[in-house]
Amino acid sequence: MQYQQIRNFAIIAHVDHGKSTLADRFLEITNTIGKDKLKEQFLDQSPISRERGITIKLAPVRMKYKLWEKEYTLDLIDTPGHMDFSYEVSRTLAACEGAILLVDATKGIQAQTVAHFNAAKKENLKLIAVVNKIDLDSANTKEVTKDIVELFGFKEEEVHFVSAKTGENVDKLLQAVVEKIPPPKVSENDPFRALVFDAIFDEHRGVIIFIKVVGGRVKKHDQIEFIQSKTKVLVSEVGFFSPSLIGKEELSEGEIGYVVTGIKDIRLTRVGDTLRFLGSNVSPLTGYDMPKPMVFFGVYPKSSNEYVHLREALNKLALNDGSLTVTNEYSAFLGSGFRVGFLGLLHAEIVKERLNQEQNINPLLTMPRVLYKEENGEMLEPYMNLSIFVPADYVGAVLTVAQNKRGTLLDMSYHKQNAILKYEMPYSMFIRGLSSDLKSVSSGFASLDYEILGYKKADLVKMDILINDNIIDVLSELVYSDEAVFVARERIAKLKENLPKQQYKQVIQAAIGAKILARTEISPFRKDVLAKMSGGDRTRKDKLLEAQKKGKSKLINISKVEIPQKALLSMIES
């Protein structure tokens, strides 16, 4: 294949701006998928992606397109738009020479639009600006175009206008891809070298790696190796995505395709690594760091019988999701479970849905925590650079929310009717409702993007919840010292509201070490022990009441503390 007629490109945009629908039109125009087989969001093979209407996994596909009597190979990679999956976009961009920057004509530029634009410019990609959904009555095409020109530096005549839903002008956009996006930069005589930008696990064929060939060629039976992980591979098949896997004789310079490795453990491979022939001396390509989980949940089976099933299900998911980390954990209250790391709250939500839909497991997730560190006796917490994109009318309300979330304002700029606010803020604010609070005060218009900045000192203390002096370990959490009393009162009030009465008194406390911050009680059921008495003097009644009192005191000491799942869930959700 002549690399001059290859175009490797991605579609990047904020979530729900129409990336997958545009990809559908491309597949239709190029006859890659027949109309009878094409369904909406074709490249989103996950049922959860379809249900939510969002892309959560990059998806490559090869299309053939004839223009000027030449046939071009278009390798498209559809990308996620949500900030939890920004790492998928960075991996995609490293394998491309250009990208379509898609903006919804009804919503305009949003936070992920800006973030993806900046990421693409860092990779020196050729960008094509596109305004989508021009067919809608609510489309504000002129204003959105002006914003694109002002914010990103495009010329007005460079902006394309399409309706991915109806197909209007999509054929012209496809032609622009061929005209404007350059072919891959390769040296024809270079030895084999390829960038690994994704990997999946197949039960029958082992690990299948997605690659961009930068130099040379690779074919079946070649012996190759990962430069960094040192894993050796005997190639059992190569091919391209259509979007199903289609085998071919070889992959040559400039092509995007796959290699079937036969490896049974995906951890032996590394996304971002470089492939080369076994024993060759070529240097590694510039890769990228794998994402690190930032939000951790305890994941427990609702009954001990489900433990093995849950363990197998989590390990199976981890085979195809390198960002998911799973370690064993034990709770004195819930028994054996797992500490699972996620990229963010949406990632956690999706994994829980997958466990439910694919494995028929509905696990219990404990309170989310971020990854704290301790150095020289001091607690450190992760910080992020946060960008908030919001209509100017809501700036005041957003400033208030950000201040309440311990944000430090770094910069604020206005572009037409919109403002971009840049903050430095603890990452833990995401699990304290940052997104929902900003959406609430901005009538849903605020959009966010972030990148992890590093760790900073934090004045944190460990707060325990006790019931009758028994620590409920799954409810322990790190809180800011200056908020400890407020949080303590809030937690025990919530628990009191949701715990049922028992035969004994329940004393609920929130404490830091031996210091009690807040306390409340739930009175026991009161049985009328005097009901059957038909007579007798006062001393006899007092004896019965004293015996009842001693019995209830004994119950407090010997009874096992039980928290119904409803009460536990109410604490987690709060």
Could you list some keywords that capture this structure?
Rossmann fold, Alpha-Beta Plaits, 5 domains, eight-stranded antiparallel β-sheet, six-stranded mixed β-sheet, 13 helices, 26% helix, globular
Please give the structural blueprint.
Elements: E1 6-13, H1 19-29, H2 47-52, E2 59-67, E3 70-78, H3 86-94, E4 98-104, H4 111-122, E5 126-132, H5 141-152, E6 160-161, H6 170-180, E7 193-202, E8 206-215, E9 217-219, E10 223-226, E11 232-234, E12 237-241, E13 245-248, E14 250-252, E15 256-260, E16 274-277, E17 295-300, H7 307-319, E18 325-331, E19 335-342, H8 345-359, E20 364-365, E21 369-370, E22 373-375, E23 378-391, H9 395-404, E24 408-415, E25 418-426, H10 434-441, E26 447-457, E27 460-467, E28 470-471, E29 477-480, H11 484-498, E30 506-512, E31 515-522, H12 538-558, H13 565-573
Parallel strand pairs: 1-3, 1-4, 4-5, 5-6
Antiparallel strand pairs: 2-3, 7-8, 7-16, 8-15, 9-14, 10-11, 10-16, 12-13, 12-15, 17-19, 17-20, 17-21, 18-19, 22-23, 23-25, 23-26, 24-25, 27-28, 27-29, 27-30, 30-31
